[in-house]
Amino acid sequence: MKTVLVTGGVRGIGAAIALAFLNKGYRVCASYSKDEDSAQKIAAKGVEVFRADVAKEEDVTALFAKIGNVDVLVNNAGVALVKQIQDVSYAEFNRLMSVNVGGAFLCSREAAKGMIDKRSGLIVNISSVWGEVGGSCESVYSASKSALIGFTKALAKELGWSGVRVNCVSPGVIDTAMNARFSEAEMQALKEEIPMGRLGDGEDVAKAVLYLEENDYVTGVDIPVNGGFSIA
Fold it and tell me: Active site residue: 26, 90, 141, 211, which one?
């Protein structure tokens, strides 16, 4: 049985990805940092849950010591920040980067060790449409997600010779708690900018991740899952 680890995998997009793999018969592990209620709910469905802050090296090494080698790593854990740049503190910048980029680095480093030994494996980084085109008042968040796309391409080149694939999925506006900050009017305005005429959901993103697991000749790509939102 293959093992998959989904960071930030107990709610929202992460939970949808975790459950999609569970339905395919994988051993599914999900990390989380704070949401005990969501962790207990998804654990009741058969997902193994582990509390860990992916921005902390000691937490990540302990996490992999508990889980063991993984066949698939989905770097989904992330935090958002909506502020104009003049109002962003350096502490806020560092925290966002340490979770969104540092967490992906630390988890990928640990996962790669076992994958290289087995000469197989898949790493999927969850970026964002803002990593592709940038978002006003989300410059730091956009920078972190853009960094994931660059990290994906470089790591795919680095690990391809070892039989390890690295890809990226960039969701658009997805109907999750992270977007609860938008008013109803703002959400309607966003829908009107999406050619498909609707918000995405976690299952839309999960399908893209499953495709990347099933097609073993795809590496170094970024798949937009945004209903056409990023079309110029």
Answer: 141
d(Cα 219, Cα 162) in Å, to the nearest integer? 12
Q: Residue 31 corresponds to which tokens in the numbers above?
A: 């990390």
Tokens of 170: 């960039």
Q: Would you place residue 184 in the very low, low, confident or very high pLDDT band (cuts 50, 70, 90)?
A: confident
Percent helix / strand / coil, the chain, rounded to 5 = 50, 15, 35
**Structure letter (DSSP) for residue 200:** B
Length of the chain: 232
- The amino acid present at 174, given as its one-letter code, is I
User: Is 141 known to be catalytic?
Assistant: yes
116 to 60, 172, 210: CA distances (angstroms)? 18, 32, 21
Cβ–Cβ under 8 Å, residues 15 and 202: yes
Contact 143, 135 (CB under 8 A): no
**What are the structure tokens assigned to 94, written together?**
């560092």
Residue 217, CA distances (Å) to 72, 96, 205 in order: 15, 32, 20
pTM above 0.70, yes or no: yes
Summarised one tens digit per residue, pLDDT across range 144-162 is 999 999 999 999 999 999 9
H helices present in the chain, as ranges: 12-23, 36-43, 57-67, 90-97, 103-118, 129-133, 139-159, 184-193, 202-214
Spatial distance between the Cα atoms of 42 and 176, rounded to a whole number of angstroms: 16
